[in-house]
Write a structure and sequence with these properties.
about 45% helix; homodimer; about 20% strand; seven-stranded parallel β-sheet; alpha/beta; Aldehyde Dehydrogenase, Chain A, domain 1; about 425 residues; 2 domains; Aldehyde Dehydrogenase, Chain A, domain 2
């Protein structure tokens, strides 16, 4: 296994050197060739995917998981569109970020360059394979992909097609390496390949991400886990609050930017909770309340709500479940978020500019919202035109990561014989 | 030990929340108070330092190491000046890096914020203690410092003085935590404190840095190791080449941006090596040559040079030793640097714009130079006004790291009830 991974990484490293200096048109051409190859090889891809789906069904996987795994012609079209859209985005590589003129006449330019080799470790969705390759190649990075076991046959077929596309382009096909070994050891080898992998990005459940973060020896960007809060302040417009928590909780509960806990200021709790909670319950949301919220709701004759335990405050449900807590003050809300938040997306609903300013400056998260839904934490919504993941760490990139976040920079110094005195 | 470190980290985390929203004037005032406190407590500091120096002498430490350790009134003045200079630099915190207007009317601002808690792990130089605290506080970060055993008494006295300074300022003195335990375990605990440490920066020898990079579970920035090359091209101006290699090798050989290997194109080697090598040897440089360079030099009757082994190509001497290799082409020079370089600083000396462009784009390093000495890789030379270290990794920051490189950002989204459709 060690030799298998090392071989792939050396091939990727070699290709990354060619790709790093490839022109924008060569890279875009490669993206279009890969899109065409997906279409031309769709039968093989769909046949392989059918086997994966059948195996997942036989293993009794839940319907939501099988849906994530399943491909069809429409989804292949979507992957192709993704590649073509990335081709249309501006190439970040070569962008001059800064120019410094040294008093001795040297010109120092800070220029955007690729990372080199980016390893992605992910789970069942096969579209991640295509998305990641597109984003890596556009940014001049070689991609080393290690997908989940459930999607192995689909991924192998997709990668075979993508390689065919690359072969008719100016990008070396070694720039895409797919790890077919799905044992845990293959991940461990990738994330410890100091000097061969410049960055590893894990995408998937909390367990996968934590394991990668804890054991990686190469630089890693932690992504995705979002225990997001919506805080409804004393000065909230309750109609906005209703729209925002409804959207943040129910529009797509399975994703990281969905809300998991609703915090409500005590001064609005008695009037508002009996209105919003039954509304959410009607939409299929299971509500778990703190003692105070339970007592308010029961006083109003509403009992379709269970008691929250301490564990609820730290759980990312990714499901139609919502924890509800009454807080005494803005400070208490910020303290709760500080204790339980995962630095992802946090919302305050208020008409008070003062309370908003306090919340926005004091809450430490990738994205802090005033009067808008947490669901907007997304590379496309932020206008990046692409997204490789959402960073929840503070080093390098925070929040939605687009093309620029997949790059590094270097300083180019031009002199005329300058030496240091 | 676990409880000791955890207590310090929790105190730092708490203080970091206050410091993150402190005004520029409060932070600058704290820097000036700390500078004053160093002066007011100089007797205690110098007495403690004398004990460290005496212990190092008794242990038979080399003079260079004792010089790094030693403090005197002049050096205390230098540390004070450093703090006051940092106070004069622009505060990066709060800088608006970007504004995105969403079509639905939301305003998304990308704003510079502190990292939170920065841990520094370093070796014997006590001035690092003061520098690191100054840079952390200016950037709104709490500092957790773990210095080397040799400087322990000096560091404790310095930190006591700095704490006195903080006590008369608006910055909580818990923002500076010094780890007095110098066992290896204290480092291990710091670099595994996921959620409590936002960034660890190791500064010191290659062994320390490698250990931190390999075992850290928190984000880390690899610094410093510089196996830097000067490549003298076929089209080089040999007078510039002479000045540049002389400066890069001899001006301060003990630092990471000094050159370690000289690569010479074969077409200039016969004429130029017999000129430059004796010149360097007269300056005290020990030269270790490849077979071809040895034969050229011996043909000219110069034999004060030994044979390089493969190990020489990968050694960061940090001393007056230089490896010399004749290469067949620009490609061969780039390949050598790709194999042995440490992504720090790489130089080409040439009058050919074509060769320069090739080298500058293809060589992967934090700083690539055309006709200038590698010794300029330095935060002050780049005009940053400060430096916390030189990054040799590609994530987050590359090359000299100043105040901006000690920050993260967050997105602040202001809406009027927007939800996602």
């Amino acid at each position: 296994m060690g030799a298998y991974i090392a071989h792939k990484l050396h091939q990727a490293r070699g290709a990354s050197r060619v790709l790093a200096v490839a022109s924008t048109s060569v890279k875009n051409e490669a993206l279009h060739q890969m899109a065409d190859a997906l279409w031309n090889n769709r039968e093989e891809i769909l046949a392989a995917n059918e086997e994966d789906v059948r195996a997942a069904e036989a293993a009794g996987q839940p319907a939501s998981r099988i849906d994530r795994l399943m491909l069809n012609e429409h989804r292949i079209r979507q992957m192709m569109d993704g590649l073509c859209q990335v081709a249309q985005l501006e190439d970040p590589i070569g962008e001059r970020l800064d120019t410094i003129l040294h008093p001795n006449g040297m010109r120092i330019e800070k220029v955007r360059v690729p990372m080199g080799v980016i390893a992605m470790v992910y789970e069942s969705r096969p579209n991640v394979t295509v998305d990641a390759v597109g984003l890596c190649i556009k940014t001049g990075n070689a991609a080393v992909l290690r997908g989940g076991r459930e999607a192995l046959r689909s991924n192998i077929a997709l990668v075979r097609a993508l390689h065919k596309g690359l072969q008719t382009s100016g990008v070396p096909s070694e720039a895409l390496q797919f790890v077919e070994r799905t044992e845990r050891e293959s991940v461990d080898l990738l994330i410890r390949a100091v000097g061969l992998v410049d960055l590893v990005i894990p995408r998937g459940g909390a367990g996968l991400i934590e394991r990668v973060v804890r054991h990686a020896q190469v630089p890693v960007i932690e992504t995705g886990v979002g225990n997001c809060h919506v805080y409804v302040d004393a000065s909230a417009d309750v109609a906005k609050a209703r729209d925002i928590i409804t959207n943040a909780k129910t529009q797509r509960p399975s994703v990281c930017n969905a809300a998991e806990t609703l915090l409500v200021h005590k001064s609005v709790a008695s009037a508002w909770l009996p209105e919003i909670v039954p509304h959410l319950v009607r939409l299929g949301v299971q509500v778990r309340g703190c003692e105070q919220s339970l007592s308010i709701l029961r006083d109003e004759g509403f009992s379709d709500v269970s008691a929250a335990t301490k564990e609820d405050w730290s759980t990312e449900y990714l499901d139609l479940i919502l924890a509800v807590k009454v807080v005494d003050s803005l400070d208490a809300a910020i303290e709760h978020i500080t204790e339980y938040g995962t630095l992802h997306s946090e919302v305050i609903v208020t008409e008070s500019e003062e309370a908003a300013a306090e919340f926005l400056s004091r809450v430490d998260a990738a994205v802090v919202y005033h009067n808008a839904s947490s669901r907007f934490t997304d590379g496309f919504e932020f206008g990046f035109g692409a997204e490789i993941g959402i960073s929840t760490q503070k080093l390098h990139a925070r929040g939605p990561m687009g093309l620029r976040e997949m790059t590094s920079y270097k300083y180019i110094v031009r002199g005329d014989g300058q030496v240091r005195g």
